[in-house]
């Protein structure tokens, strides 16, 4: 990313940020609330377009891509984990994990097999049929991580994923991200305001008032 500017009306949130992320890296983006971290993540994750600047993902120009192309790239290459889990409350953990695969056109039998495999990986085999309101915060976040992995993305974007968890549960979730990076080769971009968690990552950048220091 080069010279990424993002404006909302007269307000400039990102004043011209540069960022490079290498394949297989575990990068922390640290900053206080309002520093522009989530806005930057939305652009990295192809959920939003910058006002100006350039963004190449895997050598491909994202700003020259159509909305349909961005949706395909997002579904195939990027998994999202959020602070508030963003699970669908009326369906089971299994069905929540299957959801991204539905949009990717995966068959019902393969969706079921893959979701069960991911929930087992997260230590949640016995909770497959539970609704989100029947799960603890840590269990919800592990379901969310399983869902992020549903389409085998190369990149995991995690926006304050331990922010709603107690320290013990947050440790379990953080260890999962380390494992995804170390053992499964996932590129992880970890957004946090916690300097201790940021220090665990292989590289850290700090955002202040939309600028990357």
UniProtKB/TrEMBL annotation:
An example Gene Ontology molecular-function term: ATP hydrolysis activity
InterPro entries: AAA+_ATPase (IPR003593), ABC_transporter-like_ATP-bd (IPR003439), ABC_transporter-like_CS (IPR017871), ABC_transpr_LolD-like (IPR015854), MacB-like_ATP-bd (IPR017911), P-loop_NTPase (IPR027417)
Name assigned to this protein: Peptide ABC transporter ATP-binding protein
One Pfam family named in its UniProt record: ABC_tran
Chain ranges of the ABC transporter domain: 1-213
GO cellular component: membrane protein complex; plasma membrane
Annotated keywords: ATP-binding, Nucleotide-binding, Transport
């Amino acid at each position: 990313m080069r010279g990424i500017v993002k404006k909302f009306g007269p307000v400039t949130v990102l004043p011209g940020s540069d960022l490079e992320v290498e394949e297989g890296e575990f990068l922390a983006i640290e900053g206080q609330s309002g520093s522009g971290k989530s806005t930057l993540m939305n652009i990295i994750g192809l959920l939003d377009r910058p006002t100006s600047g350039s963004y190449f993902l895997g050598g491909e120009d994202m700003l020259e891509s159509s909305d349909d192309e961005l949706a395909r790239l997002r579904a195939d290459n990027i998994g999202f984990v959020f602070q508030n889990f963003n699970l669908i409350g009326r369906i089971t953990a299994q069905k929540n994990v299957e959801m991204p695969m539905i949009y990717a056109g995966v068959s019902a039998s393969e969706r079921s097999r893959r979701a069960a495999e991911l929930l087992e990986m997260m230590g949640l085999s016995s909770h497959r049929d539970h609704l989100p309101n029947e799960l603890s915060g840590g269990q919800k976040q592990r379901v969310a991580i399983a869902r992020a992995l549903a389409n085998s993305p190369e990149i995991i974007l995690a926006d304050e994923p331990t922010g709603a968890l107690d320290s013990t549960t947050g440790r379990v979730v953080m260890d999962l991200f380390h494992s995804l990076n170390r053992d499964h080769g996932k590129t992880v971009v970890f957004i946090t305001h916690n300097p201790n968690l940021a220090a665990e990552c292989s590289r850290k950048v700090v955002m202040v008032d939309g600028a990357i220091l």
